[in-house]
Amino acid sequence: MRNFHDWVTKFALIDISIKKLQYTWSNFRAQPPCSKIDWFFSTSEWMVRFPKTSLQGLLWRQLISNDCPLFLNTDILKEGPAPFHFENMWLRRASFKRNIST
Could you tell me which residue, 67 or 55, shows the higher pLDDT? Predict the structure, then answer.
């Protein structure tokens, strides 16, 4: 474990914390051992480029896996307003020409 910590420190990696989860693994027994076995690291350059990066645990299905699936979200698709797209089918609507003025 010491070597791992040294490696993380050497490369100045940043731990991306998991939102709303304290652990990512359990065996679901009566008194289950719970552990955080999944880690996500980034560099400062990544965090500058994707400042809204977040890590989320997805719906945990005990029947499928004892490991919680994780979703790394960079939120890049939500930046700025949505681009305008003209739809050709609008030209076929009778009300279209009435609503457009030159």
Answer: 55
Q: Answer whether 32's CB lies under 8 Å from 44's CB.
A: no
CB 28 within 8 Å of CB 22: no
Q: Is the pTM of this model over 0.70?
A: no
In the chain, DSSP finds a helix count (H) and a strand count (E) of 3, 7
| 55 DSSP β-pair partners | 18, 72
In what helix (H) or strand (E) does residue 19 lie, and over which residues does it extend?
strand 18-19
The SS3 call for residue 25 is strand
* Residues 83/45, Cβ–Cβ less than 8 Å: no
From the number of C-beta atoms within 10 Å of its C-beta (0-12, 13-18, 19+), residue 8 rates as middle
